[in-house]
Amino acid sequence: MPHLKIYDLFISHAWKYVEEYDSFIALLDAAPYFTYRNYSAPPDKPLFFTGRISKGVLAGKLANKIRPVNAFIMLSGMYYNYHEWMQVELDIAKKYNKPIIAVAPWGSQKMPSDIYTIADVRVRWNTDSIISAIRDYSI
Sorted alphabetically, which InterPro entries does this protein's record hold (predicted)? Predict the structure, then answer.
């Protein structure tokens, strides 16, 4: 069997919606013949702990996470409630010319128009279409 490419991914998310994020990770983990590294900040290793952090410092930490990845994945169901920080992540992804894969919320065909416009590809919550987009658009 040929060696499989390992895809380095940043998955934009908000911890208030941890179930959606966890479901997405489970979907990737279950995909056959697909290997990836998750550059997102997991809940047990946040980019900052309790207390306040400046926007500039947090943006720098996000840039360090996004810079090395092959693709940026936006779970678009969280965008309206977390527009400010998710927009910062999108701006960083664009700055580093990362392909943006927008995933519509599970069970929905719609996504925010801002994301629809900026994304390189838009997919539904479906394993085959998500994995195909990652393989086709990753750098």
Answer: ThsB__TIR-like_domain, ThsB_TIR-like_sf
